[in-house]
Design brief:
The complex is a heterodimer.
Chain A lengths: L1 E5 L4 H12 L4 E5 L11 H6 L7 E4 L2 E4 L1 H12 L11 H30 L5 H24 L13 H11 L12 H11 L22
Parallel strand pairs in A: 1-2
Antiparallel strand pairs in A: 1-3, 3-4
Helix pairs in contact in A: 1-3, 1-6, 4-5, 4-6, 5-7
Chain B lengths: L1 H4 L3 E5 L8 E6 L2 E7 L5 E5 L13 E2 L3 E3 L6 E3 L5 E3 L16 E2 L2 E3 L2 E4 L11 H5 L3 E2 L3 E3 L3 H8 L16 E8 L2 E8 L2 E13 L2 E8 L8 H24 L16 H4 L13 E12 L2 E8 L12 E5 L5 E5 L10 E6 L7 H7 L6 E4 L14 E7 L3 H13 L4 E7 L8 H7 L3 E5 L3 H12 L6 E7 L1 H13 L7 E5 L12 E5 L4 E5 L5 H7 L17 E6 L2 E2 L7 H6 L2 E3 L4 E2 L3 E4 L2
Parallel strand pairs in B: 24-25, 24-27, 25-26, 27-28, 29-35
Antiparallel strand pairs in B: 1-11, 2-3, 3-4, 4-9, 5-6, 6-7, 7-8, 10-11, 12-17, 13-17, 14-15, 15-16, 16-17, 18-19, 18-23, 19-22, 20-21, 20-23, 29-30, 31-33, 31-35, 32-34
The chains are: A alpha+beta, B alpha+beta.
Chain lengths: 217, 587
Amino acid sequence: MITLYDYELSGNCYKLRLFMSMLDIEYEVIAVDFYPGKEHKSEWFLEINPLGQLPVLEDNGFVLRDAQAILIYLASKYDAGGKWYPTDQPQTLGDISQWLAFADSITSTSSAARLHDGLFYDFDIEACRAGAHRLFRIFDEHLWFAEKQNRNWICPGDHPTIADIACFPYVILSEEGGISRQDYPAIRRWTDRVKRIPGFVVMSGVFPAGPAFKAAG
Amino acid sequence: METQHRKWHPIAASSDLPLRHTFHGQLLGREFAVWRADDGYVNVWENRCLHRGVRLSIGINDGAELKCQYHGWRYANRTAGCTYIPAHPADAPARTICNRTYPAVERYGLVWSGETPDGELPEISELEAGSPCALRAIPVNAPADLVTKRLAEYRFQPNAKIDGQGAEITVETAQDGHLSLSSVDGEVSTKLLLFVQPVDSNRTVVRGVLSDRPKQEDELRVFLHHSRRLSSLRDLIEAEAAGLPVPEPMQPVIHRVSEELASMPEQTLSGRTAPLRVEVSRKWETAAGIAGLKLVPVGEQLPTFQPGAHIDVHMPNGLVRQYSLTNGPGETRHYTIGVKLEPDSRGGSQCMHREVREGDVLAISEPRNNFPLRRDAVKTLFVAGGIGITPLLSMARALHHSDLPHELHYFSQSEKHMAFPEVLERLGSGVVPHLGLDPAETGKQLKAILSRYQPAMHLYVCGPGPMLEATRKIAADHGWPDNSIHFEYFKNTNEVDDSSSFEIDLARSVMTLQVPAGKTILAVLRENGVDVPSSCEQGACGTCLTTLLEGEPDHQDVYLNESEKSSGNCIMTCVSRAKSGRLVLDI
């Protein structure tokens, strides 16, 4: 059985809930009171993750921290079709890793701005926002050119990868940190597509998309 | 700055509006929700829901309507009128709930709009001849005039020599917020139009359009060339803008509701009015004895309708008849009605069948909805008898489009008597025909259909009087509560007894009037200068429904259900009267 150490409002935890829902994996949740309880810095939790960060996933005694690392693990183990993390395609794997690192940069800017605005963290808010905008400009251009090549997802191929899952939460929650996505139309279209992946679930602050097909009648 | 508001500006690229997406646009401080309906129409709307002001750009484009994420208010394609409010599932939204729309023209790969643009979108001669190709738009955090000035320094290679360098650039024109640049490198040249979209006082979007599409194999490299070079120029412009004082953001005026909608309709004492003119663009035999009529507006956009709505048609022979709209959601370019030729026609259906022709102009009322459709049922059953299919067709199409559970039971003489077969076909397995049944067999079928009532199911019935009565009775026998049974009669076949005479007090108008035998409340009101809406004037359609404050009504209509009648707090003024000597009306 899989156990997720989870905080409801965390985008990094949401990544895993989202991905496990898409893979149709059953899991249990242990809620960690990140705010205001600071339980992720408590003694019992530091024993599980000395970094004092969420999420942590345990799968039959195997304990793993770091959202991106956990996505790799879940995709490699539970995605029978090997589409989300195609271990037989070196270029795609490199590409995915590059965007997993990019997702971490989004976390340190967009998520930080959200922690400042929502949970009163003492960050340089202007620097967080400027950093997020810098990344979003690069990301929007990347996705615009992907569309021009008839690609829907961050990495080449006709199936989304864990790079899409890793980048999605703190992009879609950016407005909670005062970062508008108005100037990034290609990012906005990509978020619609992610929302239409079967098994998509929402979290607080994330709205669903409607279906994208023409119905008769 | 004022002149900017009267100009056309690009606000999006065509490729920004893929299927079922909502684009977030802005011009001169005013935000837009921009969305393409499934029929291709581009809607440019004020970016706020009329309910709580939430941005509609995060709303759901369902191809026919835009649904607000917050409380689910729905707005129709083209008209932006509200079609449904989930918190009031039993009510038809008021016509004043209509969002502000802005003009939209799609040309040269861009979507153009403006607050109040003068005239038509001007032709841009450089783009008329070639095969225009829109580049990736570049947002710049700087004022539009600075951006326009610096764009004259833009350097780029012609399409056919994209990897070269040292092309000669000429600024051919720079006016009206766009620059026309020409790049020449040896034998080859490319023309580029750069449009400067003033987003806000300190925000601008640069939209480039090449006059000629690059060769397919060069396309990506050309796009990348411009994306990178424009981005580099952007960095310089932003660095310059950072040294300037930040201007105050623009403050667009958000209009509450359009003047036309906010003003009171003109007071008339003539009773039923027909403010709209429509042309019969198509008339065809949709089934045996049933004419289909497609009505298109003469001039303006037709008002928003909701499923279940009807219009009054004022006929060439002076008669006024009510017909239900059969349209699906978002189908706002025409009204389509079905008219059955009644053997005992008093002139209405005969006139529509024999005299009205394609190309004729008819006067019609605005659509009214006294038969609103709830969209919160766990399952909705529709029971249609004959021409009673028309309002139910519109309802079934709405539920079908939103994938909500429903069944449309269509009782008809035979297959060739079934109206609008092409629409029924699109509804698929939701339509269940019951053909050629006699009253006994019909009753048996109805029992089978209505035997499985569950809470929060709803039933909508429309058809001939006897069938309607039977359906209501069978439903009641099978446990359907009064408020789950919704019905609409074609006409009131009850003999109206107008022998009583009584007094009416108008509580708001502070008037006391006498209603003599032989005259309706409605007629007495109008004679005394009090105009109230009406439509069928025979107690069937529900338009003249009035709140009753005191007194015992003598209901003679077929619009109200039993619980509404026994509640004693409403009355249809066109046929119903008083059992007591006095009625107090909330007029």
